[in-house]
Write a structure and sequence with these properties.
Strand order of the largest sheet: 5-4-3-2-1-6
Distance between the termini: 51 Å
Shape: globular
Number of helices: 3
Number of domains: 1
Structural class: alpha+beta
Helix content: 10-25%
Largest sheet: 6 strands, mixed
């Protein structure tokens, strides 16, 4: 019988699939996001070639305020509700109905005043508020988890 690995060990293993320089960037971005959203739960999703960490006040991704995605082509910060966020400098990219993203060359990008304003706006517009105190949990979700079937569109 094998002992289940901790969530931290599972996340470490997912990050170690990336090149050393990318691992460093992923860890630095995660540290900065934990500092910015300490009470949010980190929901980790493994999509084979990418790892997504959603920051949510609940254990449901639908309530996520932000997410980081480590991908083969770089790192991105996704913000919800992207299409409604005030973005006068047009930093956000994408055309999704729920989220927009910006490229994270490094963790310092998160301290840019314009990026901080976008994150603050996303927090303010969240459908569920973050707890005022405490530390969120680290929860590993895999792409292989059974998912609920999508509802068929109304006719």
């Amino acid at each position: 019988m094998t002992t289940p690995r901790t969530a931290a060990a599972q996340l470490r293993a997912l990050i170690e699939r990336f090149a050393p320089a990318e691992q460093k960037r992923i860890r630095a971005v995660r540290t900065a996001m934990r500092k910015r959203l300490p009470s949010a739960n980190e929901l980790v999703y493994d999509y084979g070639t990418s790892v997504v960490i959603s920051y949510s006040p609940t254990q449901h991704a639908i309530h996520a305020i932000a997410a980081t995605a480590a991908r083969p082509d770089g790192m991105r910060l996704y913000l919800t509700p992207g299409p409604r966020l005030p973005d006068p400098k047009k930093l956000l990219t994408g055309s999704g109905k729920q989220a927009r993203y910006l490229v994270l060359e490094n963790a310092r990008r998160l301290t840019d005043p314009d990026v901080e304003a976008l994150i603050a706006a996303a927090i303010g517009m969240a459908s569920v508020s973050l707890p005022a105190e405490g530390r969120g949990d680290l929860v590993i979700r895999t792409s292989g988890e059974e998912k609920k079937p999508r509802r068929k569109p109304a006719k």
